Amino acid sequence: MTLDLFDTLEQPDQRQQQLTQNAFVLRAFATPYVVQLLPALAAIQQASPFRHMVTPGGFHMSVALTNCGALGWTSDRRGYRYSAIDPEHGRRWPAMPEIFLQLAQAAAAQAGFNGFTPDACLINRYQPGTKLSLHQDKDEQDYSAPIVSVSLGIPAIFLFGGHQRNDKALRVPLFHGDVVVWGGADRLRYHGVLALKEAEHPLLGRQRINLTFRKAA
Ligand code: SIN
Ligand code: FE2
User: Which CATH architecture has domain 2-214?
Assistant: First the structure.
């Protein structure tokens, strides 16, 4: 999406919001992609369904997840890791659809990160009551690449904190179509999602889907 100068001057906060030096919310950036994202997402779910993974501590995660791309993020009693194989059936994760890649690259570039080549897309599914505790994305080999996070469906409050778990976190409401990009000096900031409120989205029903693009290898 290109913004003309008038839009930018007229509505500076509504389109692009800077959270910290290298972290941005791109409001509704994914909206033009949604009609193509949803069927691609349905095909991924068929091949590798959402599941509640177990943490190394033995708890089931509140968020359900799946992956697409060459590598997928997984968790079990032995730890967190990236794997080319979906442990559910022993075959590769579904390939990353071209439209996913285009969206991730365009959003990264809009936030100042040119040449982003994600090899992993973690797909999180939240229902009302689901939350994601504060954590750092640090299982990737390459911290020079940003994280691109796409929100679809019902709203959520995203927490964007500091480099210590106890640092005060910004509370950022995220809506269908919003994209958050963080990298550079902000790449390892703690972040999470508050428990979702009851809501219904016209396209996605009682759920929020988050696509998180990373360069894992
Ligand atoms: C994540 O940190 O993996 C997901 C963040 C979100 O759902 O917005
Ligand atoms: Fe994360």
Answer: Sandwich (2.60)
